[in-house]
Write a structure and sequence with these properties.
The protein is an alpha/beta fold. Helix content is 52%, strand content 11%. Strand 13, helix 17 (416-423) and strand 14 (427-430) form a beta-alpha-beta unit.
Amino acid sequence: MSVETAVRPAHVLAAEAGSDRAAEMAPLLHESGRDVRAHALRGGAGSPATGPAERLREELGLVYEAIGEALADNGSVLLADEKAALAVPEIMRVLLDERGMSWDEAWSRLQSTVSARLGVQDEAQGPFWSVDVLAEVSPRLLEILYEINRRHLDAADAVHPDDLEHRRRVSLFREDTPRRLCLGTLALVGAGRAEVAPPWAGPSLQRLSDLRELREGDVVPRPTPVSGRRWLVESSPSLSAALTLALGEGWQGNPRRLAELEPLASDAGFRGAFRHARRAARERLSAHLARALNVPTDPDALVDVRLGSFRGRERLLLNVLGVVREHLRIAAGGWTPPAPRTVVIAPDGAPSGPRVSRLLAVARRVADVVNGDERARSALRVAVLPECPEPTVRLLAAAADVSNEPGTAGSRAAGVRALGLAVGGAITLGTRDGTILELVDALGAENLFLFGLGAHDARSWRDGRFYRPEDVYSIDPLVRLSLDALVSTRYAPEPGAFDWVRDFLLDPHDPWLVLADFGAYVHRQDEALAEFADPRAFTQKAILTVARARRFWRDPAEEGQ
């Protein structure tokens, strides 16, 4: 694998699952002096009405454009998720068919051009492309993939002769019905160097171990990188100042120093300074929400931040139903929350597509009703931002007490944003999904508010058709009362306006299992709020989060290598 120079352009490729990963990598590469171009493979998020062949054609079109640019300017290609692995056969096709290289020459160029940084692996979840669809859309790419796999398996057989099980594990193709291309394995085989986020578990552990052995150190475990400078140093000047007083100058360039915060979590003086800094950040956010939305908020309230792109697997409706349930309890009287709460729902960038816009319209309507209710004024406020540009992201990173990550486990809905908010000291409330698994590994499960089905259970419920949302609705009064209220004119602008929400949530084919996790979600919300009312416990957990999230800091100088 050739050594990249500091001036070599970098092309970052990602599909839906890695879009925020690519967005985080780009600033790190810029800071290291690289010229960066991000390419989003939007076809991965197409409409369900779009067939697989059409989605594959769109993705290949975007890959073709990105690879053309990268080869034209001698740039490197960074695969930010498995879907981007389609770049591997496409580069080989261009080099073989259009530039007339031999296979060995083309493979050497590929390996010197492509690297990969992938999230926590789950082989059973995919992503995959069926061989039948590949054959329909691009027989030539499938031919190249077969040749890559043949050579790869020959190398595997040389190390483990006559081991058919090993051969099956490391193959690019899954011998299911239908036969499928495993894009994760393709990324690991085709990249000159691949970094894969730990923890490795289950079938993926054995597969990754096998591939590490074959790749002789070019497949390595490494946490998903985030810019600590962006998420903490630049976003939260008040907290940065408190850390400098505690640790001395220079910790920003040496995040290992943050380990010194762990004993300080038990120091009353430092906890007080930490809380004072967080309150200053909440005051800045409160002023912004008052200016931007005319929503007054209490700087002493817990700030619950939901930052995302809000595609289906991110389950924005879980947040909305949780707000409805809390509002109903407050409005009914007889219950006073242990602490006030400010919920901020913020689309990362401009909202994408009519489905997301419709979801945000429901969230805004609920926010208007809650904010207009005098009974809830001192206990609950809801702010739904129209978009979230970088200055607002930094305000949220500094002020967030809770990072709300309710995506379906196994869907990889939780991305780099969850790590960034943790770097800034927000305590994660979420499922065991995507980067949340990295946080559990780094912070300890006791320092997060985890809830809901795990990835294996979610997959079993979905694939085994065990999920019956109408039964959940009938049995669980929390679900029934909250959903009935949401679709009623108490929140809907007119009769029937939100009936589509009921239809969606009660559909047994809902792939995101929203109602299955609702009860666990609201109970963990209650626990987080109760803990926030105990400054010692909550602040200790936040300090430990900052200290242990140092694992994810990446020095921009490393990105220039």
